[in-house]
Input
Amino acid sequence: MATVKPSTLSLFLLILSFISGGNMIMANGQKTWCVAKPSSDQATLLGNINFACSQVDCQILRRGCPCYAPDNLINHASVAMNLYYQAKGRNHWNCDFRNSALIVLSDPSYANCIYA
Output
């Protein structure tokens, strides 16, 4: 029986997830998150916040809540976009935002701001 290296298996599962409809939850339990591209302009980030928060509850971004600080558009957009991405099923098309988003494998949570 041939042995498959873990990195090869992970790559295979990632490719398979795209082929099988884009569900980004990999079979080995790897979770994904959606964040704003650092190169996104301010108007795009604001539009992403407005769209995402019209679809999901963004209470966590209000002043005094865990994800309010740092109070900047890239942070707020990343949190809002991820809330939308998680709520809609973690499909790659739920993290496009007109090509202003990235799907990441590292948990972007910080302090008390927990990315679901």
Q: What stands out?
A: Confidence is low (pLDDT under 50) at residues 1-28. The beta strands are 33-36, 101-104.
